[in-house]
Amino acid sequence: MTEAANEIEIPESPDIETVRRLFERCSNWGRWGPDDQLGTINHIQPADIAAAAGLVRDGRVISLAIPVDETGPQTGGFGRFNPIHLMIRDGNGALTGTTVRDFYGGRDRWIRGTDDLLILPLQSGTQWDALGHIIFDGKIYNGYDASEVGSKGAMRNDIAQLRDKVVARGVLLDLPRSRGVPWLEPGERIHAADLEACADAQGVTVGRGDIVLIRTGQIAQCRDAGSWGSYAGGSAPGIALDTAPWIHDRELAGVASDTWGLEVLPNETDDVFQPLHIVLIVGMGLLMGEIFDLEALADDCAADGRYEFLLSAVPLPITGGVGSPVNPVAIK
Amino acid sequence: MTEAANEIEIPESPDIETVRRLFERCSNWGRWGPDDQLGTINHIQPADIAAAAGLVRDGRVISLAIPVDETGPQTGGFGRFNPIHLMIRDGNGALTGTTVRDFYGGRDRWIRGTDDLLILPLQSGTQWDALGHIIFDGKIYNGYDASEVGSKGAMRNDIAQLRDKVVARGVLLDLPRSRGVPWLEPGERIHAADLEACADAQGVTVGRGDIVLIRTGQIAQCRDAGSWGSYAGGSAPGIALDTAPWIHDRELAGVASDTWGLEVLPNETDDVFQPLHIVLIVGMGLLMGEIFDLEALADDCAADGRYEFLLSAVPLPITGGVGSPVNPVAIK
Amino acid sequence: MTEAANEIEIPESPDIETVRRLFERCSNWGRWGPDDQLGTINHIQPADIAAAAGLVRDGRVISLAIPVDETGPQTGGFGRFNPIHLMIRDGNGALTGTTVRDFYGGRDRWIRGTDDLLILPLQSGTQWDALGHIIFDGKIYNGYDASEVGSKGAMRNDIAQLRDKVVARGVLLDLPRSRGVPWLEPGERIHAADLEACADAQGVTVGRGDIVLIRTGQIAQCRDAGSWGSYAGGSAPGIALDTAPWIHDRELAGVASDTWGLEVLPNETDDVFQPLHIVLIVGMGLLMGEIFDLEALADDCAADGRYEFLLSAVPLPITGGVGSPVNPVAIK
Amino acid sequence: MTEAANEIEIPESPDIETVRRLFERCSNWGRWGPDDQLGTINHIQPADIAAAAGLVRDGRVISLAIPVDETGPQTGGFGRFNPIHLMIRDGNGALTGTTVRDFYGGRDRWIRGTDDLLILPLQSGTQWDALGHIIFDGKIYNGYDASEVGSKGAMRNDIAQLRDKVVARGVLLDLPRSRGVPWLEPGERIHAADLEACADAQGVTVGRGDIVLIRTGQIAQCRDAGSWGSYAGGSAPGIALDTAPWIHDRELAGVASDTWGLEVLPNETDDVFQPLHIVLIVGMGLLMGEIFDLEALADDCAADGRYEFLLSAVPLPITGGVGSPVNPVAIK
Q: Is D110 exposed, middle or buried (0-12, 13-18, 19+ CB in 10 A)?
């Protein structure tokens, strides 16, 4: 399979032409028909889901989400801020009587409720990118025009397409642990061969319909430093260009990581920002997850030696959404 | 078990005293220690989860969420409105060039992204209530003071407690289908005996650690009418007071329904609004779900005759949240 | 001056061609240079402001704004909703102690504060339209490309241009009172001759640099009915096409009314929606105000017979804003 | 008048008892009746407004607001963030056609509109505090219970009370310029005698019904530094405790400054945070303004030697609001 990755020679200084070649090499446009809006999620077959459920032995549930609150990593880039949580009515009003006055029309019928509200940029925390999240040459996945993503949201390739998807076999590739380091350093590139070697070391295989979770350890590094620092958009370890054919040929259903953007930063391409977003989301139609907290899962997998599990990570069915917050759980 | 329900005689005109007796009868305060914030979710044991995974045979995933968008049922009651979805940057800006101008500092590096944002009342759609959502006599579940739910959200009993919970055996009780009607009528009371009879008719049992989904068909009725009408807060079919001991004695982990508030409306108690919210959430610590769309699941269960499944319905880990939107999936 | 209005014959069934002729007739593109972003506000000269201040005799201040709250007229059209007001911390928390716990780090230093927040569609209530609010043939006022109004807001013609503007002589034209009726009926057209006749009847003149407030009485009608009904976007009395040259030739600085959209609805043009928005905002660069509550002002003017006053109606300097809420005050 | 300030001896280390004495000394509770919700705004009489209008000679309008956008000074303290501006529909959609598709039901009637929305903490920028903004000993101004400010906002003392107020004679006291320095240093206390001396140096008097704008130059200092730094809540020049009787005896209608909180920070009282907020807002019922940008006004006043003007600074009539953004204008 490593031949596949080598089919396209990645030059020492890759550029937009390299990206275009990878795009063509890995494109799934039309593969599932001209109306497809699911992309690589199509790789998951019902039998895969049933098989993945068979991986549940102990009944442990491990969350992969960071908290949805103001302590998140956002610092304003791309207009993203950390979630804002506000109370519509709270417990104090129950104690002082204003809840009855203001919400029950002054009629006390014993009950008191509390309500709340979120203002939530959909790309602010643990999230799935919808296939409408990235545009290249005026097109989104499967060739739809970028104008399909207008002021009202994505008419095509929105996250609501996945309302009953994203239950799959999950596989953790714990890169730093397989190398005996606490985390990969910012800027460190993860090549196809690295993924392969990690899987081998862990004694696990990845294949069609799997959702692969790539741990770089950057969240551990931030915790160790006591600050998110430049986690959101700054230098980061991540996958390199030659992983695209590797992902494509294995027919993975999704890939997620514990970094802001999955890809290595600075990017390998000086002239292209986040080139794999172009290849993987626009071309391949890959479900991509970001800011997944893989620390607890990594500890668990190291403890029992099992790096595969049932992954349930269904997005909210946000009509027109180009992303969704998610609380993915690994069930073992 | 039906004796249990009968222990407390529900008078013809129940009132706050009835509620207090049921509260005492069904209370779990202290049952799992003075610091417990999970309530009936404690009924789920790891082996139950593993067993529930064993219910997955075909690999079908069925979503139980209504769309997260402005077409929801809210009309402003309790300050709740339907979710507001806004684009931070969209595909049009990619086409006209403003995305590069406004979000990439004028530097074109080939990629274009889109981002979006939700303003989302956490009780507006398919949702779990956190145990901090309801207050009675100045207390929330397990005896914490109502002031634990302040302007910053719930310091205790928030929904984030369940970040790695709510994977369980799910059981659908399809009341209308078991009676041969399309839906229960607004105001129709579902008694413990009705639940029991429905389970019997379906050939399914419910017990410790299960999450029971009670279909009334009200969403079907709204769809048939072409309008939500007074779905949010108006007259509705729902469970009656005598179901509380039934739920308690069976040690259910959670109960959800396809109505705005699970309980029958108008309530049986003239002097108490939503009396079962007091008994079940404050007293019992029950995980309660509302506005679950059970239509597709009901059709599926009718088709294969299997009313049990793996339910994965993990909330978002919203720090301090007294509820969470959720896209519950039944996996069969 | 009425000749001016007659220069362009308004056909019985006006259409886009009529609109184009009026646009050309009334255009101010280039009039104040290629970089102008102020439009007709340029008509106000410092001496006019000083003179307008001279109209203040009694020291009465009359607000022309509807309340900023959830009782406003919006029903969702164009994504507009009524303002949502939420407390960040309230007085209950001061009483129960959670304000100290949650906002002062647990340190009680005697003071307690309350804070709040608005979610506010800028076109939802009493408002000024920025010149970037309307686009025709891909252009905004003064010929800037529509792409100047991108996801980040208006780079040109935003409302912040008026941060130190919109203090002027105001003149009320109380159409219904001049005709002895409580309000004009929905669909009733106000022609240039009507405005002229009203001014004459009131004994007032309008001219260069004035901001003219046209009362139709529709808010009075809504109050009488006890409901906004279809105020937001429905049938309404309003100005007719032939008022454009009248406004242009008088060199008015702004025009506002007590309706949703100033123009008569249904529009005179079957093929063009809100044709005067095109002519007045895009072509003329006119400051246009909507949902002004003119009831108290009308009573005041009727009482003292003075229909002119100092109008202070400065918008919020919202960077990139295509509108601004405003609380205009007439000072007499 | 300086005797007045001296009546209450401010000890070297003032504390809560000093605050209580000042509170009693300066209280206006009951002064305008038990139902008063206006406080010192009552000091403004119609004749004062008319007289203030007489100060307008040249017709210059000077805005005192900072921009309403994400460049503001907030850093998250008290849950305050800088305003978030989002487009509901923009000019790009007009160019690509999605505006017609998404907002006009697919029917092209020539016009294209743009709309936008603000998420705006009311204390985030140039603002008036409502009298319900501060609580002391469980009470707000005029003795109302703090529970009057509940989850739905202030039932009493909300900012909407001032919907037709806050037009007055304004007086600028330019402390740094009167001392020949560019700005006062953080922590520098402004005493009553300093205000008096500044007024004398400027040749201006302040008295009943005036709104006094106190320039410290801190905004100039931030601009010079190129950053807001700790402007929001950090060390700041500001008025000292002995100014309370001075303000009270002069019967000022309002006081505003170019700092985050008007008062000197660190406060003179170790045990009381923002002691003058307690004395001035809760006790006196003073209209207090913060984050006023006085730079342009200061230059203007220095240029023409006139430190008095018509001040028009009407808040938005936000029902229940405990503050309001405002674009105050000085008209000279």
A: buried
Regarding pTM above 0.90, the answer is yes
Cα–Cα distance, B28 to C83 (Å, whole number): 41
CA distance A189 to D217: 50
* pLDDT (0 to 100) of residue D2: 45
Number of neighbours of residue C203 by Cβ within 10 angstroms: 10
Query: Touching check for D104 and chain A: CB below 8 Å?
Result: no
Chain D residues closer than 8 Å to C113 by CB: 78, 133-135, 277
> How many CA atoms lie less than 13 Å away from B212 in the CB half-sphere?
29
Position C1 scores a pLDDT of 39
CA distance C257 to C126: 10
One-letter amino acid for residue D131 of the chain: L
Query: Residue C15 pLDDT more than 50?
Result: yes
* Beta-carbon separation of A96 and D147 below 8 A: yes
Residue type, position A212, single letter: V
Tokens 């719930």, residue? B154
Pairing relationship of beta strands C211-215 and C167-174 according to DSSP bridges: parallel
The parts of chain A modelled with pLDDT lower than 50 are: 1-6
pLDDT tier at B3, thresholds 50, 70, 90: very low
- DSSP secondary structure of A75-87: -SGGG----EEEE
| Pairing label, strands D115-121, D127-129 | unpaired
Q: Specify the pLDDT at position A3.
A: 46
CA-based nearest residue in chain B for residue C116 = B151
Residue B4 pLDDT greater than 50, yes or no: no
Which is nearest to B327 in space by CA: A128, A37, C241? A128
> In this structure, what token pair is assigned to residue B94?
């990619």
Four-residue CA torsion sign, B145, B146, B147, B150: positive
Interchain CB distance below 8 Å, B91 and A163: no
Q: Looking at beta carbons, which residues of chain D come within 8 Å of C145?
A: 91
D228-287 pLDDT tens trace: 999 999 999 999 999 999 999 999 999 999 999 999 999 999 999 999 999 999 999 999
**Complex confidence, ipTM:** 0.97
Whether residue C275 contacts residue C19, with contact meaning beta carbons closer than 8 Å, is answered with yes
Q: How many CB atoms are closer than 10 A to CB A245? A: 24
Which residue, A150, A19, A234, is CA-closest to B109? A19
Nearest-Cα distance to chain D for A102, in Å, is: 7
CB A47 within 8 A of CB A60: no
Residue C244, both tokens: 């454009």
CA–CA gap between residue B284 and residue B19 (Å, rounded) = 12
Q: Where are the alpha helices (DSSP H) in A41-104?
A: 46-53, 91-96, 98-103
Give residue-wise pLDDT tens across range D288-303: 999 999 999 999 999 9
The pair of structure tokens assigned to A43 is 């790789």
Cis bond upstream, residue C67 (ω within 30): no
Helices (H), D233-282: 243-250, 275-276
